[in-house]
Specification:
With 159 residues, the protein is mainly alpha-helical. Helices cover 71% and strands 11% of the residues.
């Protein structure tokens, strides 16, 4: 029996679990409970965009679109909304004035800092339901799976 065929049942179970986990983590209900002060102004997509901008210290609109998983037009509208909220701003890229770079404002950086602290507390609460060994194993395996998914995604992007 090939390795692929023996992995299929586990792969199906993992797929179901990750789909459910993704739905929970992306749900507006969880989002609202973690960030009640943001109300309806900040959708999960806007929050993801802000996190990416913070992580990369600014991005071109096209890069932001790729990383959020939307087309350029949608990313442009997303940036418009973030600017309206005072959380991001457009500027020129040093050395290439034609390129538009989106960066966080001071208010956006402060917001992401607070969101990060709330998210860490949320995951600490989740980890508290596991014993010490399970916690370490969950984090280690999640990191390993994320790396495998990132590598696979990058391979698909070059085809």
């Amino acid at each position: 029996m090939s390795t692929r065929s023996t992995l299929r049942p586990l792969a199906a179970e993992l797929s179901t679990c990750w789909r459910e986990l993704g739905s929970i983590l992306a749900s507006r209900r969880l989002h609202a409970s973690l960030h009640p002060e943001l109300g309806r102004q900040l959708t999960p997509s806007k929050l993801r965009a802000l996190e990416l901008l913070a992580q990369h210290d600014g991005l071109r609109v096209g890069e932001l679109a790729d990383r959020v998983g939307v087309d350029d037009t949608t990313a442009t509208r997303l940036v418009d909304r973030l600017e309206e909220l005072g959380l991001a701003e457009r500027g020129s890229e040093e050395g290439d004035r034609r390129a538009t770079v989106v960066t966080l404002t001071a208010e956006g950086r402060e917001l992401i800092k607070g969101v990060g602290a709330q998210r860490e507390q949320f995951f600490a609460d989740v980890l508290a339901t596991l014993d010490a060994e399970e916690r370490v194993q969950l984090v280690r395996l999640t990191e390993k799976a994320a790396l495998a998914l990132r590598t696979r995604s990058e391979e698909l992007g070059t085809r």
